[in-house]
């Protein structure tokens, strides 16, 4: 349950998502100097055990503070999208409550750390297409029409959503 805005919260994250990300760091498919080094030392069993542990923790509380106007902009995009601009409502995949879907491999984003949420949205938007790996591709397509102010609004909303 990170309280550092730039470090992701893992409490309550779906086991399948954590397994997938740790394997991607270990295989050096997902960039991160810190996490590639950490994951390099993990066995498959370590990864499965860690993922089960984090999935069993309750999701943390909303982050305090923030900017209400930015959050309202993020809420509208998250819940309704913006059809004329081909922005798919994030809630279609992540759910209105932002808890994602374990079975479909969709990450929980509720009360994610605000700094990490913005960083990962930028990363996913600009990630090269991996071809064979479908999951990051879904986010790359969803984020393509959005500008950086909108990514800020979305990060603000997911970290502080009711
Ligand atoms: C078509 C389904 C789909 C849509 C629409 C979608 N997402 Fe995602 N999202 C996913 C999937 C699948 C993942 C997991 C990606 C992976 O496995 O690398 C994900 C991952 C994420 C993550 C990273 C979670 C973490 O902790 O690392 C964030 C943040 C996120 N989505 C936010 C959003 C926002 C905000 C929107 C709306 C602009 C959105 N998503 C729209 C499917 C979707």
Largest sheet: none
Tell me the radius of gyration.
Answer: 15 Å
Q: Quote the distance from N terminus to C terminus.
A: 18 Å
User: What name is given to the CATH topology of the largest domain?
Assistant: Cytochrome Bc1 Complex, Chain D, domain 2
Per CATH, the architecture of the largest domain is: Orthogonal Bundle
Give the ordered list of helices and strands.
Answer: HHHHHHHH
Q: How many β-strands, per DSSP?
A: 0
Strand content: under 5%
Estimated helix fraction: 40-55%
- Based on CA inertia axes, which overall geometry fits? globular
Which ligands accompany this protein? heme C
So what's the CATH class of the largest domain?
Mainly Alpha
Structural class assignment: mainly alpha
Q: CATH H-level name of the largest domain... which superfamily?
A: Cytochrome c-like domain
Instruction: Give the overall average pLDDT.
Output: 93
- State the helix count: 8
Spans of 5+ residues with little confidence (pLDDT < 50)? none
């Amino acid at each position: 349950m990170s309280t550092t805005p730039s470090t992701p919260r893992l409490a309550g994250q779906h086991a399948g998502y954590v397994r997938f990300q740790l394997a991607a760091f270990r295989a050096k498919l997902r960039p991160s100097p810190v996490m590639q080094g950490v994951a390099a030392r993990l066995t498959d069993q370590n990864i499965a055990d860690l993922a089960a542990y984090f999935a069993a923790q309750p999701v943390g509380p909303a982050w305090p503070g923030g900017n209400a106007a930015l959050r309202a902009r993020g809420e509208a995009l998250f819940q309704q999208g913006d059809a004329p601009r081909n922005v798919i409502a994030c809630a279609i995949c992540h759910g209105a409550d932002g808890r994602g879907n374990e079975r479909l491999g969709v990450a929980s984003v509720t009360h994610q750390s605000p700094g990490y949420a913005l960083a990962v949205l930028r990363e996913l938007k600009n990630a090269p297409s991996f071809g064979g790996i479908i999951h990051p591709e879904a986010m790359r397509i969803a984020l393509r029409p959005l500008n950086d102010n909108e990514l800020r609004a979305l990060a603000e909303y997911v970290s502080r959503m009711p």
